[in-house]
């Protein structure tokens, strides 16, 4: 079963039916841990350390004390370090929503920035968690917005889901149930897999009233409880930009609901999972120290880059605000941050 973000807006899903679910061929799982602690008196509070922070609570001291080392704080992009960054990087990896555009609106300076980077001989790759589109459909959006991007430069989580099955030798005679849009179905078909569900099952609606029933395969839910049934999520983003005005619930909402229902964690193939990065490295043979990941989300884009050993640049044009970045409780720090992606070029011209 593969889940993408579009299904979260409908509030309904049906799970797969496989006669013989395929055996799990990879032990790579993305775990989410929810932690809480019981209430304590201030005198009982002991020293607590959380990544990048030193927290202490006693009767005489405040509970939170920020001791983040200055060397760990992100640096604002300036004319000096922007030039150094450009000189040290061979390939730029871009997130799309919130970095290049919001909804169907381009962010200022994007076409000029991409063109300038290409003229310098930089390799440009576009790594997106948007699974509603296939690579072909994503390329169409790039072109519609006036961006000259080739399909082979695009790596979407819908493509990653299909590649995960293919690289792990998932049997082609087994069916894949999809909770999501056409993007996943198209990529699965290109990889030689038969998929069911998708937008057609999305038309089935659930009404919250007594004795409401709708037609569905009653054996479907059983498959997901079996140890050999793969549970794949394209991503766990909680929100996304469906329009340029506001954020909407994304795949993470649906994934969380199913996780709680079946008490099972999914295999994540999108950012920040290293699966897509491994695929990119295999294809392009570029040292990660020569790559820079540019994104608007700390927990996906920046973490994706940091986990792989890339330089990271956070843009404040999308999900993450400056106050959120500088929050003492934030443990994910990019190497640099700036307002919009075109600052990479404009700062160098100063």
Automatic annotation (TrEMBL):
It comes from the Eukaryota. SUPFAM superfamilies: HAD-like. InterPro entries: HAD-like_sf (IPR036412), HAD-SF_hydro_IIA (IPR006357), HAD_sf (IPR023214). It holds the Pfam family Hydrolase_like. PANTHER family: 4-NITROPHENYLPHOSPHATASE-RELATED, PHOSPHOGLYCOLATE PHOSPHATASE 2. NCBIfam families: HAD-SF-IIA. This is Phosphoglycolate phosphatase. It comes from Dendrobium thyrsiflorum.
């Amino acid at each position: 079963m593969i889940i993408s973000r579009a299904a979260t807006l409908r509030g309904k899903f049906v799970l797969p039916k496989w006669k013989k679910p395929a055996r799990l061929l990879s032990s790579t799982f993305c775990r989410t841990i929810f932690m809480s602690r019981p209430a304590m008196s201030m005198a009982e509070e002991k020293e607590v350390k959380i990544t990048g922070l030193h927290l202490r609570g006693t009767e005489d001291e405040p509970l939170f004390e920020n001791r983040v080392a200055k060397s760990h704080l992100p640096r604002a992009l300036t004319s000096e370090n922007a030039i150094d960054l450009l000189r040290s990087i061979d390939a730029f990896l871009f997130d799309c929503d919130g970095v290049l555009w919001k909804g169907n609106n381009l962010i200022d300076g994007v076409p000029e920035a991409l063109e300038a980077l290409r003229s310098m001989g930089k390799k440009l790759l576009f790594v997106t968690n948007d699974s509603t589109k296939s690579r072909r459909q994503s390329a169409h959006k790039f072109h519609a917005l006036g961006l000259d991007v080739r399909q082979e430069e695009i790596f979407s989580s819908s493509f990653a889901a299909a590649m995960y099955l293919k690289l792990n030798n998932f049997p082609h005679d087994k069916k894949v149930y999809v909770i999501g849009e056409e993007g996943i179905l198209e990529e699965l078909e290109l990889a030689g897999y038969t998929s069911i569900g998708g937008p057609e099952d999305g038309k089935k609606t659930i009404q919250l009233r007594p004795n409401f029933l709708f037609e569905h395969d009653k054996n479907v839910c059983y498959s997901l409880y079996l140890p050999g049934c793969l549970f794949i999520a394209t991503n766990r983003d909680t929100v996304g930009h469906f329009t340029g005005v506001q954020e909407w619930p994304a795949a993470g909402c649906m994934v969380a609901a199913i996780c709680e229902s079946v008490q099972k964690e999914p295999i994540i193939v999108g950012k920040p999972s290293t699966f897509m990065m491994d695929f990119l490295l295999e294809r392009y043979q570029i040292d990660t120290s020569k790559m820079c990941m540019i994104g608007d989300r700390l927990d996906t884009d920046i973490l994706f880059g940091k986990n792989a050993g890339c330089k990271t640049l956070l843009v404040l044009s999308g999900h993450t605000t400056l106050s959120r970045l500088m929050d003492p409780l934030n443990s994910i720090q990019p190497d640099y941050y700036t307002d919009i992606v075109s600052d990479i070029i404009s700062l160098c011209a100063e």
